[in-house]
């Protein structure tokens, strides 16, 4: 039986949230980036809910950065509604039942309820459905199958997502092997979510992933790149689990990467994925061409990776790097140097240095009778002498030098 919104009433799997959970849900619906879009979507003549990551992350009290919606309607209905609204449609993907639209300064994804008709491990032929339960069944993991209506009611169609969130478990929906064979990208998504959420995973699932890993070869390089960029931006230990499952010669088709080594010893807080890739392949500077192909790198990313794969030489005085390049860039190169030296402690030692501050200024020089271009020349002379002194000269030392010249 369906209501006037096209929603099957027997698909309801209502979850009665506790007091603390109700606060989390209320907070999500009051998110400042949702105010305008909820005002718009509430006017739709069909049911719409928040789905997926936003609901999951809000429940876990994690930062919510992306907002995806599902609509219980046909694609033509959704398109017509959005076209008549103040939003701007950015991308139409009728084959996926998906529309990306902009409202204000944010992008939002909205997808009709779908069911898979056929799958081949790379993509699925889909058809519209009016069942939230059927739509949830085609998703990847139970914790991503939750939805939240605009009245604040949390829905758990499979009656497992909330339990897995509470237990911090990452579980495939249904049989893991069947779910993977529908779309082999779910192997990489499994590790991305595990790395992001730090949930417990079933060793049995890891065994199935190992057995099905060859399916990754069937995926396009673009789809693999999308997941790998996100994985390489996460804390590093997840890469060790991926290594144990024998994934890398399926992901990197032109070059099997070396042992993770330095990456597994400690995690550098910088989540720049090209930096981590450079540390990983530090002994293989010629791999940049293969990596550029396998991960569909842009020209800029390829050039950056090539520079970072050139082993940096530790400067005789780390303070000089800090002064010339600032802390962020210096730390990046120190980390790569420590990776090349396989010495995590070296990185920590280098990071204890403070950025040197030139102990003299134009104001001080003006007070000393310098003016105009002479101030600029005097500052250059003082800076050169200060660096040559290994940053030991103080203001009075520099003034003595300047007055002599």
Task: Annotate the secondary structure layout.
Blueprint: H1 19-29, H2 35-41, E1 48-51, H3 53-59, E2 68-71, H4 75-83, E3 88-93, E4 98-103, E5 106-112, E6 114-119, E7 124-128, H5 132-137, E8 147-149, E9 154-155, H6 161-167, H7 176-182, H8 185-197, H9 203-212, H10 221-232, H11 237-244, H12 248-251, H13 273-280, H14 288-294, H15 299-309, H16 318-341, H17 344-350, H18 362-367, H19 373-388, H20 395-404
Helix pairs in contact: 1-3, 7-9, 8-10, 8-11, 10-13, 13-15, 13-16, 14-15, 16-17, 19-20
Q: Kindly state the mean pLDDT as a whole number?
A: 87
Give a count of the beta strands, DSSP E runs of length 2 or more: 9
Contiguous uncertain segments of 5+ residues: 1-12
The percent range for strand residues is 5-15%
What strand line-up does the widest sheet have? 3-4-5-2-1-8-9
Beginning-to-end CA distance, first to last residue: 94 Å
CATH superfamily of the domain at 1-167: Beta Polymerase, domain 2
| CATH architectural designation of the domain at 1-167 | 2-Layer Sandwich
CATH topology description of the domain at 1-167: Beta Polymerase, domain 2
Secondary-structure content class: alpha+beta
Count of helix runs = 20
Oligomer: single chain
Structure characterization notes:
The protein contains 20 helices and 9 strands. Strand 3 (88-93) and strand 4 (98-103) form a beta hairpin. It is globular. It is an alpha+beta fold. Mean pLDDT is 87; it is low at 1-12. It has helices at 19-29, 35-41, 53-59, 75-83, 132-137, 161-167, 176-182, 185-197, 203-212, 221-232, 237-244, 248-251, 273-280, 288-294, 299-309, 318-341, 344-350, 362-367, 373-388, 395-404; strands spanning 48-51, 68-71, 88-93, 98-103, 106-112, 114-119, 124-128, 147-149, 154-155. The strands form 2 sheets. Strands 3-4-5-2-1-8-9 form a 7-stranded mixed sheet. Among the domains are: 1-167, 2-Layer Sandwich (Beta Polymerase, domain 2); 311-350; 362-404, no CATH class. Helix 7 runs parallel beside helix 9, helix 8 packs antiparallel against helix 11 and helix 14 (288-294) runs antiparallel to helix 15.
